[in-house]
Amino acid sequence: MKLLLALCLVGIVAASRPPGEAQLTSYENVHNGRGNYRFGYSQSDGTVFEQEGTLKNEGQEEESLAVRGKFSWVGPDGVTYTVTFVADEDGYQPEIEQGPGGAVPSAILHSLAG
């Protein structure tokens, strides 16, 4: 679980730009107090992050958190990169999309896939 959160935070940091360059345009942080949550934000530079966690098998030995989300940013090359992910009992499963400009470098694919 801690690894999952660490991977999500790495994605956020990788998608962010230097402070002061972008303004926060929306923010959402909702928790139901029982493990389910929804979090997201968008910035004036095109960066977007959305994540939703759902508690599965609540109160049972197999209780776990399933997380779905996506983050996107506009790279220095002007291309919008989007990572859509699921993190659950089957591990972290990213899908990477890239706007016009070429293929996603294999080093990025390997680093996200673990």
Structural commentary:
- Helix content is about 20%, strand content about 45%.
- The protein is built from 2 helices and 6 strands; from the N terminus they run αββββββα.
- It has helices spanning about 1-15, 105-114, and strands at about 25-30, 35-45, 50-55, 65-75, 80-90, 90-100.
- The model has no long low-confidence stretch (mean pLDDT about 85).
- It has one domain (about 1-114).
- The longest helix is centred in the first third of the chain and has 14 residues, at about 1-15.
- It has a 6-stranded antiparallel beta sheet with strand order 1-2-3-4-5-6, with helices on one face.
Q: Total domains, how many?
A: 1
* First and last CA, distance: 15 Å
Share in helix = 10-25%
Give the H and E element order. Answer: HEEEEEEH
Unreliable segments of 5+ consecutive residues: none
Largest sheet, strands/sense/barrel: 6 strands, antiparallel
Residue fraction in strands: over 45%
Average pLDDT metric: 83
What are its keywords?
alpha+beta, six-stranded antiparallel β-sheet, 2 helices, CHIT_BIND_RR_consensus, Cuticle_Struct_Prot, cuticle, structural constituent of chitin-based larval cuticle
Give the gist of this structure.
This protein is of the alpha+beta class and about 110 residues long. The chain contains two helices and six strands, in the order αββββββα.
